Fold:
Amino acid sequence: MSRTVYVNGEYLAEEDAKISIFDRGFLMADGVYEVTSILGGKMIDFAGHMKRLGRSLSELDMAPPETDDEIEAIHRELIRANDLVEGLVYLQVTRGAADRSFVFPEGVKSSLVMFTQVMNLTQAPAAKTGIKIISIPDIRWGRRDIKTIQLLAPSLGKMAAKAAGVDDAWLVEDGCVTEGTSNNAYIVKGGKIITRDLSPDILSGITRRAVLRFAREAQMEVVERSFTIEEAMNADEAFVTSATTFVTSVVEIDGQVLGDGTPGPIARRLREIYLDESRKTAT
Ligand code: PDD
Structure:
């Protein structure tokens, strides 16, 4: 069935939606995006995603395409028009269409594209089994704190994982894990939750922020520091967080099984808390 999507001021059937071939998103990956999860037809942490979008735009000197209120209204209309109960709303802003040039064009309006995607978030099989990962070099650029649409490196990472017969990859730079291809990475050792501290090396996950807050509120100890793959392979537990995976256990790293090879208690507890809180606070 055809979805209703949004392109630059219009709601259209997906097959009628069009973007210029001169759009700088298409030509240069000159754009940013957000993925907001939908649970029970409501948005999880919409304010957090809007705040990060604002930061991504300002770091790249890109004009906001609409006001925050208008962007919220578009999210709601797409959820309604597509009867979306569980899944995501994808939002992409690019610098707009202009003759190809490395220099930013002046006076060009940003493009805004949004669409919904149905996804089974709460009952994803990986939530029960956990995921297996490999480690690979982090070949991305140096501003991973900006959520840009340049996703070829993470895409190659997922393909390397697929070729290795596992689910995902963790990225390693200067001997330490930065993050997952599309999620933040954590290990648990002796009851401590360890995750890399925020810097331009990683994306400041909206789910990360919520999960660390819930962990601290539940009296769990959180340490924000870098860790190596060797440390991860010897951890009691490991997990990832993102808008679409919530909290998902990692049960194998580079062939090394963690614990008994099933999701560990801390990751399971954090997923439970995250889901409960998200159901309560989704808007
Ligand atoms: N990815 N790190 C990277 C590199 C990511 O791409 C993502 C999200 C995260 C987690 O951020 P958040 O908790 O705000 O979703 C961390 C999205 C889901 C995606 O590209 O589909």
Q: What stands out?
A: Residues 265-281 form the longest helix (17 residues). The mean pLDDT is 97.
